[in-house]
From TrEMBL:
Localization, UniProt: Cell inner membrane
Keyword Oxidoreductase: yes
Protein name: proton-translocating NAD(P)(+) transhydrogenase
Organism: Rhodococcus wratislaviensis (Tsukamurella wratislaviensis)
Origin: domain of life: Bacteria
Its membrane topology: Multi-pass membrane protein
Catalyzed reaction equations: NAD(+) + NADPH + H(+)(in) = NADH + NADP(+) + H(+)(out)
Domain NAD(P) transhydrogenase alpha subunit C-terminal: 9-93
Entries under InterPro entries matching the protein: NADP_transhyd_a_C
Length: 109
């Protein structure tokens, strides 16, 4: 079991280095689509954590903690992604002209 744990830790560390190398090469114009993909992946993490937490009978305490942390961080990232997307979309909405606002309120015509 100890060698399996070391192998898993080595894979985790190497995947972190590979992820950093790949992300650092992405041009600035592609960061928004990349973040959308990341939010989708975190949605899958949330779903996976819920499925595993619900299916396993009497999960060990450590597994419960890991699944709970994955659930919390994944949920925070998904909600944050929706908030950022809403802010970005709000930047592209056209602002009403002052005369249009006055007409809507029943002011000067």
């Amino acid at each position: 079991m100890y060698t399996e744990l070391l192998a898993n830790i080595a894979i985790l560390v190497l995947s972190g280095f590979v992820g950093f190398a790949v992300i650092s090469k992405v041009p600035n114009t592609l960061h928004t689509p990349l973040m959308s993909g990341t939010n989708a992946i975190h949605g899958i993490v949330v779903l996976g954590a819920l499925v595993v937490l619900g299916k396993v009978e009497n999960p060990p305490w450590g597994l419960q903690v890991i699944l709970f942390v994955a659930l919390v961080f994944g949920t925070i990232n998904v909600v944050g992604g929706f908030v950022v997307t809403d802010r970005m979309l709000a930047m592209f909405k056209s602002k009403p002209t002052p005369t249009a606002v006055a007409v809507e309120k029943g002011g000067d015509k």
